[in-house]
Amino acid sequence: MLRRDPSLHDSLWHATAAPAPETTPFEGEAQADVAIIGGGFTGCSTALHLALTGKSVILLEAKEFGWGG
User: Fold this and answer.
1) Smaller CB count within 10 Å for the chain: N or C?
2) Residue 11 and residue 69: Cα distance in Å, rounded?
3) What pLDDT is attached to residue 67?
4) Distance CA 60, CA 46 (A)
5) What are the C-alpha distances in Å from 37 to residues 16, 25, 31, 41, 64?
């Protein structure tokens, strides 16, 4: 289950964004053209741009997507 980490510093985006959907830890196997570790700004942007070119992408994040630090 994804929960906002209280140690993360607040930002306008963090304060105004809709709550993230409930998720569960990844288990099992998956196959994709590209796996990206880290769902901060750079990881999300990279995943989006690769997906727009037709690549299948798996984006893995330990804490909160869209946040870096």
Assistant:
1) N
2) 12
3) 75
4) 12
5) 26, 14, 14, 12, 12
Dist. CA 61–CA 38, nearest whole Å? 5
Domain ranges of the chain: 31-69
What single letter denotes the amino acid at residue 3?
R
Residue whose tokens read 């869209």: 66
pLDDT tens for each residue of 2-50: 556 665 556 777 778 888 778 888 899 999 999 999 999 899 999 999 9
Token code pair at residue 33: 């053209």
Query: What contacts 24+ positions apart, CB below 8 Å, involve 1-8?
Result: 2/64, 4/64, 5/63, 5/64, 5/67, 8/64, 8/67, 8/69
